Amino acid sequence: MSRAYSRTAIPALLLVAALAGSLAAERLARAAEKPAAPVPTAPSLPSLPAGATPLPPALAARMQDLRRAAEEYRGLRFQREVPAVALGGRALRKVTAQEFAEELPPERMRSLAAALKAFGFVPEDLDVGRYYPELVASQQAAFYDPDRKYLAVVELGAWGREAGRGPAGGKNQRQGLDKALGPDLARRTEEAVLVHELTHALDDQSFDLNRLGKTLPLADGGAALLGLIEGDATVTMIDYMMQTRVEELPAFGDTLGSLMRDPGALASLSPDMPGSKEMAAAPAWFRDTLLFSYFQGFAFCLDVRRQGGQKLLDYAFAHDPPRSSEQLLHPEKWYGKRDDPMAIAWPDLGAELPGYEKTADGDLGEEGIAILLRQDLKDRDQAATAAAGWGGDRFAVYQKGARRLLLWITDWDTETDAAEFQAAAARLGPDWQATRSAPNRVVVIRAQGGELGGPECAAVEPKLAAAKAEKPANRDIDLQALGIPHKKPAAT
């Protein structure tokens, strides 16, 4: 599991802030505290980051109750202790830089930057390698490290102030939370974030999060994994906030759906929340993908729990995680009538593109395509319609001096879906070309630094049109074998 860009807690705070106002009447009083069950000590301490310090005594004592709450609402039990430490701002920046260096080393970061700029997701002059870690650091309140098996509290907030210590900015964070939510809910929210991270530790001990695979950017399958991981922790966090299982609140899905329609507006909803200004100012791809893993992951896990309870959610972690952002957006395409993505084989274009270097590749998936279309067309409904019906896609970026080619194969479920996407892609700009190369296939080419209809474009288009695509097996989940009664899928 890639940790460098998934360890964000401020989006979870945004979710709490957004829901707090609309669901305030449903929020219950804090449950009576119960003693936590003893947890076996880990056989050996993990490798803790430089600059880590012990938690303040009050928070260390409270962690036992928060651990019990995570166990209760997630339905799993800790197998060993999870060391928890505090990190100041300087130590956080070092940890973030180290993890980006491990997960997105310079060559991979350059590839990511090339892809983002080829699609127009970020400005040409943006230093992605510098900006990305800084944005992630601004979004962290706490995190769990699945490689080193520890939990870190980044901003101590009230706990640090009470102990007369804490990282620079801790008081500002607390003041921001107080202003946005009020003192009592602010403290409750800080605790909920720790329940969120403890849920990651529970899932890791029960299912081994690293076994699920990589959550690399511009890989749609990675976005699905990250949505499962962050969505599960967010459901447990909201359970703790509400002191009830949220799937039992009938209006909750509608409330969430209205919030999800505009990630940009959502990021601006609570300007006093720590990190919200950085999130609101971020390019749409960074902002929307970070929020997607929490919000749409939450919606997916909530729907899964409504359909099959903890059994079905545990099955996703243990055996069969969602394969695409499409399945997060439409959960019935995972647990109901299965719709896995097509695997597109990228053709060898060496003869057609002499002197060109392939600098990036990946796939966008339904959510990535929707972000692209929302950003450029400024029409949310059209973007959602054009991205729906996605069957699979694959892109690559080729560079030769100042000449850059973005080559993109997209496959669609129906001819209507393909036509809708082609019409939307044709409006992206004069340097974009969208060709219906088969009933269900649209080939997109973007040429920068030269003529769109140059000889390279004419040479590669037939190969892109003929690229082989492997249809998925689409084996439905046997709910009966899992002991789950059949339910009609919820509307999406």
Overview of the structural elements:
- The chain has 492 residues and is an alpha+beta fold.
- It folds into two domains: 10-333, no CATH class; 343-470, no CATH class.
- It is 50% helix and 12% strand.
- It has 19 helices and eleven strands.
- It has helices at 10-22, 57-74, 89-103, 106-119, 128-138, 157-162, 170-181, 183-207, 220-242, 252-260, 263-267, 276-281, 284-318, 325-329, 332-335, 365-377, 380-387, 415-425, 455-466, and strands spanning 53-54, 84-86, 142-145, 150-153, 343-344, 357-362, 390-400, 403-412, 432-438, 441-448, 469-470.
- Strands 6-7-8-10-9 form a five-stranded antiparallel β-sheet, with helices on both faces. Strands 1-2-4-3 form a four-stranded mixed β-sheet, with helices on one face.
- A hairpin with a 4-residue loop joins strand 3 (142-145) and strand 4 (150-153).
- The chain is globular.
- The two termini are 28 Å apart.
- The relative contact order is 0.11.
